[in-house]
Amino acid sequence: MIRQQDASKRGKASRNKGARAERELANDLTELIGKRIRRGQVFNREPDLVGLEGIHPEVKRQDRLNIHEAMAQAIGAAQKRSDGFPTVFFRRDRGEWMVTMRLIDWVKLYRTWRAARRAGRKYGKR
């Protein structure tokens, strides 16, 4: 049987690992995008990351991620907050960051990007 104290320590370690992942990804995105992205404040009911307009980010750092459960969590929170496309950012320990979206949301995002390119606005390299 698992002692309550041991379970509490594991829960705290898991929360700390998640917070580190959110800070790490926020810093990486800030550097890559050139716009300040920060870790959300849970007590203010903010998403995991703040500053990605039109994207509802769910950040996970797990070796055995159930991507369907993570997407369900992102979809539910995005619908509740109406703050953008549900998106899961995830990586394994010592792995690279990956991103998952629903296909229909990716198509909408791509069409917006393509229309902006055709209109002459620059969004990244070709």
| Average pLDDT figure | 89
CATH fold description: Trna Endonuclease, Chain: A, domain 1
Coarse morphology: elongated
Q: Which structural class do the helices and strands define?
A: alpha+beta
Distance between the termini: 57 Å
List keywords for this structure.
5 strands, two-stranded antiparallel ribbon, 126 residues, three-stranded mixed beta sheet, Trna Endonuclease, Chain: A, domain 1
Q: Would you give an account of this structure?
A:
Strands 3-4-5 form a 3-stranded mixed β-sheet. A two-stranded antiparallel ribbon has the order 1-2. A hairpin with a 6-residue loop joins strand 4 (84-91) and strand 5. The protein is of the alpha+beta class and 126 residues long. It has one domain (4-118): Trna Endonuclease, Chain: A, domain 1, CATH 3.40.1350. The chain starts with a helix and ends in an 8-residue tail after the last helix. The chain has helices at 4-33, 67-81, 103-118, and strands spanning 38-39, 49-50, 54-61, 84-91, 98-101. It contains 3 helices and 5 strands.
Describe the SSE topology.
Blueprint: H1 4-33, E1 38-39, E2 49-50, E3 54-61, H2 67-81, E4 84-91, E5 98-101, H3 103-118
Parallel strand pairs: 3-4
Antiparallel strand pairs: 1-2, 4-5
Provide a compact summary of the structure.
With 126 residues, the chain is of the alpha+beta class.
